[in-house]
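Troubleshooting: if your tokenizer reports a length mismatch, compare your output against this known-good record of 342 residues.
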Amino acid sequence: MGWLRSLMGLAIVGFLLTAMPQVGCRRDGTHNVPVAVEHFTVVMGAGEDDPYWPVIQATARRFWDRLGLRPEGLRVVAPRQTSVDAQVRMLRILKEEGMSALCLQVIDSDAIAPLLESFLADGVAVATMIDEINASMSINHCGWNHEALAGQILQTLLDRTNGGGPVTLVLPRRTGPAQLVGSKDRRVASQVASFKKQLADYPGYRIVEEIEFDSSENLSQIIQRGLARFPTMRAYISFGPEPLMADKGGGWPAERILSEADETVFIGLDPLPETWPAIASEGKVVLIGADYGEIAPLALGLTQSMLMQSGRFSSGSRVPFVVVDRISLSEFKEQWNTWIKR
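Known-good structure output:
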């Protein structure tokens, strides 16, 4: 956290230059009369229904308030439902109203890239949050990239299993608007490709199945069928939280089956509240998350530093990964509740 505080200190000057009320001269010649400032900073989430939204909005506002800046200098917004089209419409309006800096949770890199390029050309300071945008763009990013995430998945596999063996990949189900599904497919494809490339350095492991999870089929059935074919299955690796979120009712039906498979673990992404019952099971579930509470403050700091330096540059801050299992779940819950506290 020391590096975050240092960045915050650097950003304060930029905040003060861009967010504090300015004093100007009226046309009648009177001086030192406050003049309305049109410029403001925007933090935009993917949607109010996005699981990260409570963390993004709370931490962004708290960071801004802690610096003692005027509330009207920051707008924290998101579409009601996750939609890149809604994001584009809102961003065009905000740009016309005087947006000078933007921290954006990206939904679809390809769809939003042209608009962000135009913002950068107009001098708007831009930083993306959580998931990275197209690597060909020169833009700040606060979160993680697919290669680093794949590396963390691999490291977790090595840490949680004893030697090589069969591995099954569980891919997110395809639901929702076509645009969102396409974006998810590209993101998952990039993560899977990077994971396979890195796994190749460990020939003892072999991927025996790639399953697209469908909510109409219970995850416990998928695991049971896989273990029947490959009794020495080392891990099920899910590239999304959906399989764990699908089992409702406070329990996790796959718990019993995994508990009977002594050397099999379930490794997934995003330890969201809906997944906590599964993590709290027999210790066979390990989810990879991040220090989500740092993302919005880091993005705000980067954009304000850009404004202070009056230049466009490419940089970024990789948010530390967090591995959550049954033992560390309690601590992670407390951290999550701290993040979303208003």
